[in-house]
C-alpha cells in the first residue's frame, strides 16, 4: 500500500491549463528568489474517479495509429486518458523539477487484461524514485488505472530534467553510447510536419515541443519532435496482442524531428515481439522496445 497522501481530484485536469501553469513556473524560475530545483518529491498521489472513454477520440486514435478497430482499448490510449493526472503531480508547487523541457526516456507498462471502451475507470498517479542521471536528474511517474476493485493498467514513465542535479554536477563527461547496428527494416513511416499536432488533437498533449518549429525553439529544440507515445502507439498497433493482458516497454534514444522518415523493424519471437526505429537517412536509433502477452493469444476472430 502506498504511503503517499491521497489528493482527490473532482475532474480530469485540462492539459492546456497544466502546460500554462508549467510555462508560468518556467518564467518565475528565471528570477532571483525562486526555489532551487532538485529537492525531494512530494509525498502525495493524485486520484481521480469516473474516467470514461470518448468514443470519437478512440476512433480518431485508431485511425491515426493505423490500429485495428476492436472492442478493447489500446494501451497507449489508456496512457493518454491518465496522462493529465500524472501531469497534475508534476506542476505542483512542491514538485522540485521543471516540467517544460523534460526529456521522455522510457515507459514500462503492464496492461493486465483487455479493457472495454465502455469501462468506467479510476486512476492514481504519483512521482517516485528521484535519482541521478549522467545528464541531470530522472524520476518515474507511476500511474495505476482500475475498474471497480481491480487494477487493469499500470504504467511508469521515466523523465529526465537535463542539466539539473540533486547534488554537485558530475565532473566526468558522460560516456558515449555504444554503436548499434540497425536490423533489417520491416516498415517505413513517413512522419509529416503536423504529426505532433495530429496526436495532440486526439489525446490533448499540446506540449509546445511537439507542435511547431517556433514553439519547439522556445524550449531549446531546432524543430518540433514527435511525441514518444505516438511512436509507441504506432509500434504497438502492429506488435501488441489482442484479447489478453500484456507487458510492454519502450526506451527512447534520439528525438524524431518533424518532418522525417523512420525505418522500423518488428520481430515476432517465441516469447515476445521486439520493435525498434531509426532515422531512415541518418541511421541514428530513435527507440526500441518489446511486448509480451501474459497468456495464450486467442486465434484471430475469437
From TrEMBL:
It holds the Pfam family MaoC_dehydratas. InterPro entries: Fatty_acid_synthase (IPR003965), HotDog_dom_sf (IPR029069), MaoC-like_dom (IPR002539). Residues 181-271 form the MaoC-like domain. It comes from the Bacteria. Belongs to the enoyl-CoA hydratase/isomerase family. PANTHER family: 3-HYDROXYACYL-THIOESTER DEHYDRATASE HTDX-RELATED, 3-HYDROXYACYL-THIOESTER DEHYDRATASE X. This is Acyl dehydratase. It comes from Paeniglutamicibacter sulfureus.
Amino acid at each position: 500500500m502506498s504511503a503517499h497522501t491521497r489528493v482527490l481530484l473532482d475532474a480530469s485536469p485540462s492539459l492546456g491549463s497544466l502546460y500554462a501553469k508549467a510555462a508560468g513556473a518556467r518564467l518565475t524560475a528565471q528570477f532571483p528568489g525562486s526555489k532551487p530545483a532538485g529537492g525531494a518529491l512530494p509525498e502525495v498521489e493524485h486520484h481521480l474517479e469516473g474516467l470514461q472513454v470518448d468514443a470519437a477520440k478512440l476512433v480518431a486514435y485508431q485511425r491515426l495509429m493505423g490500429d485495428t478497430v476492436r472492442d478493447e482499448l489500446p494501451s497507449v490510449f489508456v496512457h493518454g486518458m491518465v496522462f493529465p493526472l500524472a501531469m497534475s503531480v508534476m506542476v505542483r508547487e512542491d514538485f522540485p523539477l521543471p516540467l517544460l523541457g523534460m526529456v521522455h526516456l522510457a515507459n514500462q507498462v503492464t496492461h493486465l487484461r483487455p479493457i472495454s471502451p465502455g469501462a468506467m475507470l479510476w486512476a492514481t498517479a504519483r512521482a517516485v524514485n528521484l535519482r541521478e542521471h549522467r545528464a541531470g536528474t530522472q524520476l518515474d511517474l507511476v500511474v495505476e488505472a482500475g475498474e471497480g476493485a481491480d487494477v487493469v493498467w499500470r504504467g511508469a514513465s521515466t523523465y529526465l530534467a537535463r542539466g539539473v542535479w540533486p547534488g554537485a554536477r558530475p565532473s566526468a563527461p558522460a560516456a558515449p553510447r555504444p554503436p548499434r547496428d540497425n536490423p533489417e527494416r520491416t516498415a517505413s513511416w513517413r512522419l509529416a510536419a503536423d504529426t505532433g499536432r495530429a496526436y495532440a488533437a486526439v489525446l490533448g498533449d499540446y506540449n509546445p515541443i511537439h507542435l511547431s518549429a517556433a514553439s519547439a525553439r522556445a524550449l531549446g529544440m531546432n524543430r518540433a519532435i514527435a511525441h514518444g507515445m505516438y511512436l509507441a502507439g504506432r509500434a504497438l498497433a502492429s506488435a501488441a496482442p489482442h484479447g489478453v493482458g500484456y507487458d510492454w516497454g519502450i526506451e527512447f534514444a534520439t528525438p524524431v524531428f518533424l518532418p522525417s522518415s523512420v525505418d522500423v523493424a518488428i520481430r515476432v519471437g517465441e516469447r515476445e515481439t521486439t520493435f525498434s526505429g531509426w532515422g531512415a537517412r541518418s541511421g541514428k536509433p530513435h527507440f526500441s522496445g518489446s511486448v509480451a502477452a501474459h497468456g495464450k493469444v486467442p486465434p484471430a476472430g475469437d
